[in-house]
Write a structure and sequence with these properties.
Blueprint: H1 2-21, H2 28-41, H3 47-53, H4 62-79, E1 84-86, E2 91-93, H5 99-106, E3 109-113, E4 138-139, E5 142-143, H6 147-156, E6 161-165, H7 173-187, E7 192-197, H8 204-213, E8 217-220, H9 230-235, E9 241-247, H10 253-265, E10 270-274, H11 283-288, E11 293-294, E12 300-301, H12 302-317, E13 324-327, H13 329-346, E14 354-355, E15 361-367, H14 370-382, E16 390-392, E17 398-401, E18 415-427, E19 439-452, H15 454-464, H16 470-480, H17 487-500, H18 502-505
Parallel strand pairs: 3-6, 6-7, 7-8, 8-9, 9-10, 10-13
Antiparallel strand pairs: 1-2, 2-13, 4-5, 11-12, 14-15, 15-17, 15-18, 16-17, 18-19
Helix pairs in contact: 1-2, 4-12, 6-7, 7-8, 10-12, 15-16
Amino acid sequence: MVLDDFRYFVLSYYAYLLRKENIRDVGIKKKIFQHVQPLVEKMWFDPFWFLVTGGNNPWFSKKEARDATQQRDALLKKLSGWVQYGTKGSKLYTFSLSPGCVMCQEGRWGCNFINRRCTRDCYFCKRYHSMNVERDPETEGFTFASLEEHINFLKLFQIKGVSFSGGEPLLVLERLLSHIRAIRKEFGNSLYVWMYTNGDLIERENLMRLKEAGLDEMRFNLSARDYDLSPVILAHHYIPTITVEIPAIPEDYDIVKSLLPELHAIGVKFLNLHQLSFEEENWKILLKRDYHFCCHEGLSVYESEMCALRLFLHARERQLSLPMNYCSHAYKFRVRRRDARMRRALLSLDDFQEQTDSGFVRSLWVFDSPDKINDLRRRMEEAKCSSRHWLLHHDKTGVALHSSLRSYIDWSSATITIVYHNPTMTLKNKSDGLHRENLNTNHEMVASVRGWGQFTFECWHKLYIQKQNADDVFRFFYRHYPKVENRTARLQREVIELKELAQYEELEEGMPEVF
């Protein structure tokens, strides 16, 4: 176990090095990794690296990565005009998405892991395979010892779609039914409710009870039981929406391709394909399958993405009308983290702070002499600016303010600091359960830039508040940067800072480069 933990750490850290080495800037990181990368690459020939990987090399060389990106992009080009792109291009789908997937994109979905045991032991699963005891239901780190706590969670975070997952939720059927009934009693039909299952425990009586409780959708992982359609066919007669949701397993491409026409014929309304990802629970088996890992965000399987895109292309060539959705690892990595941050900020955001498109909490701090800060405060008060939109620093040399108040700043001597926080939330007392009064909110600082003048700040405002074209803004920045002491060094530093803030301001666009 200790050796496995070490191997997983080495693989994950190597992926981290690759991500950092891929940063396109002129900063210190680039110089460091120019020396680190060749050294690490040599480890493939060492007995140490053989021990870590078991002899398999899951990484692309630089040439292989370029070729892999070209092959992936060639498939995307063939799909152009037929697929639609969601969430800045990281989600591909045809025709339409299920209501639950729409809510996921909008950040209004909460997944309740109602149990952790399962009737199967799928190699790709991100569940801990040794789990053999029941746990309380859990969503995003909050556990629910009672139905009331789950309902409180849905209210507090303004959830509009609820899914139930496991393990296998039907192993705790009574618990599942009680949660669905409680949701319907509290919210009526205003919440969309679905569940995931491998189909092992699908029976007519269970389906009738789930229908009566108010289940809207059932999603089947057919790959867990060798693509047996019988439970899907049965469920179609009881549950309004039937979806097949499976990992895109490269070895199963032919069988899934052959099933596409039949799925639509038996009443399946949506096919969701997920990209395999390399996790602590499944990495050893994935490593043995000669897959290549992509490192852009977390670790995902390149061949899995290609399998999904090839299935899309096959559906297009056959003019199949079954709605298909490719849930890439990039989409899940970006969107689910953003959604968690946005929900937590609902209960912790001050009026002078703002939330970025990627869910981080942003604070703008203006620093100057006490007299100048007092003058700034007076100007805002005279203009009847709400006192909730600014906050005086304890030493009275700074004030935090909403970006809409920037026109009141006297830039003759002021500088600005921008701070980004990750909103977090814990229970003050676990035994008291989940309710508003028992929540402890906190903002963990993740990044900051300091000492900017008016010119750089206004360029930041064009980039991230006004959403102007980045190339145009940076051309303007280079052309008009003020003539100050150490101009070249300051310009380069502030360009890097402006670019690196993008990860805290907005979700990355498009399918990630393969490396």
